[in-house]
Each structure stands twice: as C-alpha cells, then as structure tokens.
Design brief:
By secondary structure, the chain is of the alpha/beta class. 41% of the residues lie in helices and 17% in strands. Bound molecules: ligand ME8.
C-alpha cells in the first residue's frame, strides 16, 4: 500500500477580544490580517481553520457590566454580537467563533484545570500582590503604584489562590525557544520574551475568589479560573480538546498544534510564556508559532478603548468600503511595527493606489476590450519585446509576492504587486492602443490592439489573483468582468497553486465593466470624521444610561468605560482657555453639561431660553464620593494636577485643572465628588478617568464640592 502524503493544514487564530467595549480598528486590524492569510492558504489548497471569538469572563467585564447596569451575561452577549456582526459585515472568512461563556469552552477549561492539578502543576497557596484589573494581570510593583504596562493604578489583592508552577518551566521554555527559532516573532517580541523568561519566572496565581464572573474551579467552586488561563485555552477548546464529541475530537487531532496565533504585541508574554507552559504541563504540544502585530496609533497613542482615541471600521467601510481598509492597513503598516492611522493618509492611498491605480487600469482595459473587440479577448498574435518585458515583470512579481506575503511582509508584497500595476499602465500608455497614427495600416493597428489588450488583460488577471486575499470583494468583481466566473470558486479549486502567466484564453467573453473604486471626493475625510463624531456623541449620550431595561444591543452604554473620543471631540472647545490644559476635568460651570463635551458650535442658538432636563437625563450622570490618595503637579502643565482617587470599589487617576488654586499636599485625604462615568480622556499623555466637581467663582477659581457629614467612598449622589 502506498503512503498518501499528509495533506497540508493550517490553523490560525486571532486573539479573542474582551467584551468590555465595542470593536475598533485595532481589533479589525488583527482580524483582517488573519483573514487575508486564511484566504491565501485556502487558495493554495491548504486545509485551513481560522478561529476568532470573544473573551468574556473576568473582573474587568464584570465591572463594565455593572457600570452599564446590566448582568455580565447580557452585557457580554451584546458586545460579542457586535464583534461577530461586524466581522460578518466585513465578509471575514472565519471558520469558528468561540465565546468563552459557551458550555463547550467552560467544560473543557475545567478539564484543563483538573489535568494541570492532577499532573502536579497546580497547588494552593496564598498571595498578596498588586493586580491590574485593566490588563487582568498581576504586576510586580509597590502598593498603589501604577501598572508598568498600561499606567493605570493597581489594586492590592490578597487571596488564597491556586498557583501554577510556572517557575518549573523556565529552562524548558528557553530550550523550546532555542529549538524552535520560528516560534515567535517579530525579532523584538522574541528578544523581549526571552529576556522576561531569563529574568526568572515566578509561579502564577491561576484562580480568583474576589469576584464570581468566571469559570468555577472544579471541586472548589468559590474560586474562578484566572481569566488568562480561561482565555488562552480557547485555542484548543474551540477545536474540540476536552470534548466528548468524536467529531470535535477529530478536529482537534487534525488541526492542533496551531500553525499561528496572531496577536497584538502587548499580549506576547501570555502567548509565548504562559501558554506553552500550560500546554507542556498538560502534555499537549505547544503551538508552532506566535506572531505579534504592532499597534495602530491614532492621535499619537495606541488606539484603544480605554484611551478613547478609537476609530471604528464601520466608518471607513461606509465611506470607502471594506477593501479600502484592508488595503490601507496591510500596505501602510509594515507588519510587526506600529503604524499611524489617519483619514488623510487613508484617502490618499485609496485614491492613489486603488482608484487611480488598479481600478483605473482595470476599467481602461475592460472598456477597450468591449469597444474594439466586442468584449471578447482577442488572439495576441506575434509578440514584441514590449510584451516579453511585461511578462518578465509579471513573472518577477509572481516570484516575489508569495514569499513576502507568507513571511507576513504584506506591505512589501503589495509594493511589488503595485509595481506591476504601474508597469502595466506604462505598457498601455507606451503602446496607446486607442490611438492610430496615420502611417499605421488598419490591419496593423488591429493587430497591435489585440496584442496589447490581451497582454494587459492577462497582467490584470495575474494581479487580481494575487491580490484576492487582500481585496476579496474587488477581486471578485474584476474576475467576473474578465469573464472568469466566481473567484471564490477558483480559490476553492486552489487557483494560486498553479498561477502562471498565460491563463487568459482568447475567446473569453468579458462582462460589462462595473465601477470598482470610485474616486474619493474632497469631503471623504470630513465625512469619516463626522461619522466618528456623531457616533462619539451618541456613545456619550448612552454612557451610564443603559439600565437593564433600556438600550438595544447597539446601545449598551458600554462607552461608560470606553467612550471613543474622536480627533474632533478631543479638541478643546473654543471657550476653554490655554490649549494645553483646555480639557481639564474641572468644569467651569459644574454639572451644567458634565457628560457632553460636544463642540461649542452645536450649542443651542437661543441660550437664554430655559432648558429643562428630565430626571432620566440627570440619572445618566454618575456622581460619586471619592477620596484623594495622591495629588501631584503634572510637569510642564502649570494648571494641571494628577490625582489618584479611591472610590471604595476601585482606584483611578483623574486630571484636574486646579493646580493654581490648590496645593497638592493639602488635598490628600480629602473627600470629593466626581463624575464617575465620564469617557476617559488623555491630557499631557496621562489618562483622566472622570471629572471632579467644583463651584466656579468669578474669575474661574474653583471651590471643590465636599461633605460635612461622614460619607462612605463610592456613595452615589442622587
Ligand atoms: O487582550 N493596534 O483582548 P483585547 C493593533 N482578551 N492591534 C490592536 C489594537 C491596536 N491599537 N488594539 C487592539 C485581549 N488590537 C485579550 C486577549 S487572547 C487569548 C485574549 C488587537 O480586546 C490586538 O490583536 O484587549 C490585541 O492583542 C487585541 O486586539 C487585544 O484585544
């Protein structure tokens, strides 16, 4: 019996996203990268499994849900649905979508925990340390100090916990990295992870008792499984590890170990240290590779829900389409590096590379084939050096594109492909099939037109096949216009395995030309900014207003913790004095409009008219008692103080423009009132999470609101 070669398989995953706020471009970026990889693998005949999903347990989600007045289940379902709905509208080709609240995951995580315990890698102990709720991670800092990763204030947590013997894996991990140089990348991630492990690994607390929103530890249900152990396990539970279902078990056997976990660089430690250690301890093979994308930056900072500087994929899709976003992200940002997102750069790339570049080339050629040959691809006839040259260039692109793409160098792959777009354009212009010089006979001209248009159309076919994983929707349109049918069917037939010059046959009937990338008008940037601003406004209005009985899935009030602030909204209103401290969190007229930093232009014209608000409107503003723990001046900002305040249930940082009126030392210990559900804002590189209330005296001097009687921290003012 002859042995069949094992068919090639590829399992790749995105991180599973937290459901504490809605998806933004950062999440879209990692998911788009995976989608492009998955599409190319499938079109190369490789059996591919592409997993994405949501990470729904943990203290962060529990608190976000409470803040929105919803149960964690309701809250998580609503946001998970938003992620999935967006991925569907973007046409992303994931094969499975895992939610960590699903029974298939919960049962398998309990099995994994039990396995680790049975194999002697989990023990019970007690621990006091600093916990960063935002990162869901223990950090090695002094009590009250900020988290070294995200800068938010850590909480001192003292608990009896289960511990994972991570320290036992120090050597094994280093040996594993050494033996598998391809395991992690890019190089910066590899170096960082190795030096983290070399610095010594401490055992890791893998259960929590101070909250309940998680998977109960089997046999000791007052503990819930640490959210990162729960989350990382999704990569095996979704396939079917720990399941009793034979089909699921088979899928696990088929696809594990994962070929690639694609992640953002900030979660490398969890994926490159904890995850392989958990797997080794459980006797499961570690993944083949982890690849970290860099950060998408907006307004100078990492685009993130907590910073409030996000842009939504929906906005770009509405104005320029999903393919434009995919192209921009993959072309503009060398994979692994941080990259800026700006509407202007996006529109520029769109017009330059897509509308005037590829789109225009396709439209010229398809139109001319219709005009001169009734839409039927002509015989090329005898070729000249000009065609041989274009063919050589196309073959060079065919040779360069795949290796660059497969090395995740999408930017380089696209650059080489767009050279071919330019060369094909140049070839057309040089041969000008639309222009017949007087000295050329009709027969000669018809021969030139046939040769040139058939050759240019072939170049377009090659370009379109290669770009399909990145521009699936547009490539499908072009494929149809070239009379080649559905590109998705071609992909299923593994058309990239034998892609070579010369595949477009004479006699092929083109379909009617259809617009691909209509030129973006001058107002495209403004339209996108307006869409973001409108969304931001409605999010702020929804903030804190999402009681369990109100708000749709699209209006969950989650921005109470994560309101996006667009470039526009983050700009100081004209009335606010000095630019640097314009957005200080003390309101010049407290409570007048604390939750609506809307542009001044939108204030009602007849300001004198008495405006009433309803009790429901007032209830949207969450005023709470807080105590100042730390107060200090912000360097180079003479009006700004940085405060750390205790709300009883959490600590946070607030920036306030009161430095000219209050000595920081005198504020420590003072109880104040803060707006607790104000969208976070960034000032001088620091995040402000709320606003304190003060009366505003003539000349602008603030007097802080306070209490004569004793009040507990966190008490709500109604
Ligand atoms: O970390 N630039 O979830 P998360 C680039 N649940 N990528 C970005 C980005 C940005 N500005 N912002 C987000 C978690 N991402 C955990 C993961 S996995 C077992 C658990 C992408 O909602 C990037 O992939 O905070 C990053 O790692 C991920 O979203 C973080 O999503």
């Amino acid at each position: 019996m002859t042995q069949q070669p094992t068919p090639e398989r590829f399992y790749l995953t995105t991180p599973i996203y937290y459901v504490n706020a809605r998806p933004h471009l950062g999440h879209a970026y990692s998911t788009i990268v995976c989608d492009a990889i998955a599409r190319r693998k499938r079109a190369l005949g490789i059996e591919t499994w592409f997993l994405t999903g949501t990470d729904e347990h943990g203290q962060k989600i529990e608190r976000s849900a409470a803040l929105a007045g919803r149960t964690p289940e309701e809250f998580a379902s609503a946001i998970s649905g938003e992620f999935r709905g967006l991925w569907d509208r973007m046409g992303l080709s994931y094969d499975d979508y895992i939610r960590t609240t699903e029974p298939r995951h919960k049962t398998a995580v309990q099995k994994l925990f039990a396995t680790l315990r049975d194999r002697g890698f989990i023990y019970k102990g007690s621990y006091t340390g600093q916990y960063c709720v935002s990162d869901e991670a223990w950090v090695d800092v002094a009590p009250g100090a900020p988290c070294p990763d995200c800068g938010r204030i850590t909480e001192t947590v003292s608990e009896e916990n289960y511990f994972f013997k991570l320290s036992a894996f120090e050597r094994r991990l280093l040996e594993f990295y050494e033996a598998n140089p391809e395991f992690m990348g890019p190089e910066s991630t590899r170096r960082e992870v190795i030096s983290f492990v070399r610095a010594g690994l401490k055992d890791l607390s893998v259960s929590r008792t101070s909250f309940t929103w998680g998977i109960p530890v089997p046999g000791d249900e007052k503990h819930v499984v640490y959210v990162w152990l729960d989350a990382l396990a999704n990569y095996i539970t979704a396939l079917g590890w720990g399941s009793d279902d034979p089909a699921a078990q088979e899928r696990f056997r088929k696809f594990w170990p994962a070929n690639m976990h694609l992640i953002g660089k900030e979660i490398s430690r969890f994926h490159c240290v904890y995850w392989p250690a958990f797997l080794m301890a459980a006797g499961i093979e570690p993944p083949r590779s982890v690849r970290a994308n860099g950060w998408l930056l907006f307004d100078q900072g990492k685009m993130s829900k907590s910073k409030g500087n996000i842009v939504r994929a929906e906005t770009v899709m509405e104005v320029l389409g999903a393919d434009a976003l995919r192209y921009f992200l993959l072309r503009e940002i060398p994979f692994g590096q941080d990259g800026n997102f700006s509407f202007d750069a996006l529109v520029q790339r769109y017009n330059g590379d897509l509308a005037n570049g590829y789109g225009n080339l396709v439209s010229r050629v398809v139109n001319m084939v219709h005009k001169y040959f009734g839409g039927v691809v002509p015989e090329t006839g005898a070729l000249t050096a000009s065609e041989e040259d274009l063919r050589a260039k196309a073959e060079a692109t065919l040779a360069a594109f795949g290796p660059a793409f497969d090395a995740l160098d999408f930017s380089e792959a696209l650059k080489s492909l767009w050279l071919l777009v330019g060369e094909t354009d140049g070839y057309l212009t040089a041969n000008a099939p639309w222009k017949k010089p007087a000295e050329r006979s009709d027969a000669e001209h018809a021969a030139l037109q046939a040769r040139v248009l058939a050759t240019a159309a072939e170049a377009i076919r090659v370009i379109t096949a290669l770009v399909y994983p990145i521009l699936p929707e547009s490539a499908a349109k072009v494929w149809r216009q070239l009379g080649l049918g559905e590109i998705a069917d071609a992909a299923q037939q593994a058309f990239l395995t034998n892609l070579a010059w010369g595949g477009l046959k004479a006699g092929t009937q083109f379909l009617e030309p259809a617009p691909l990338f209509p030129r973006a008008e001058k107002d495209a940037t403004e339209r996108m900014q307006n869409l973001e601003e409108a969304n931001n406004k409605s999010a702020i209005e929804a903030a804190g207003g999402g009681g369990a009985d109100r708000g749709s899935a699209a209006n969950t009030g989650t921005e109470a913790v994560a309101a996006p602030i667009t470039e526009q909204a983050a700009r100081p209103a004209p009335a606010a004095a000095p630019a640097a401290e314009a957005s200080v969190s003390v309101a010049p007229a407290p409570v007048a409009s604390p939750a609506a930093p809307a542009p001044a232009a939108e204030a009602p014209a007849a300001a004198e008219e008495k405006q009433f608000i309803s009790i429901d409107d007032f209830a949207k503003v969450e005023l709470r008692v807080a105590q100042i723990l730390v107060a200090e001046r912000v360097p180079k900002a003479d009006k700004l103080l940085r405060l750390e305040v205790d709300l009883g249930y959490e600590k946070r940082q607030i920036l306030a423009g009161i430095a000219q009126y209050y000595e920081p030392e005198k504020l420590i210990g003072r109880k104040i009132v803060i707006v607790a559900n104000l969208a976070p804002r960034k000032m001088r590189g620091l995040e402000s999470n709320g606003m304190l209330l003060a009366a505003s005296l003539e000349g602008g001097a603030p007097v802080l609101a306070g209490f004569l009687e004793e009040v507990p921290l966190g008490a709500r003012l109604k």
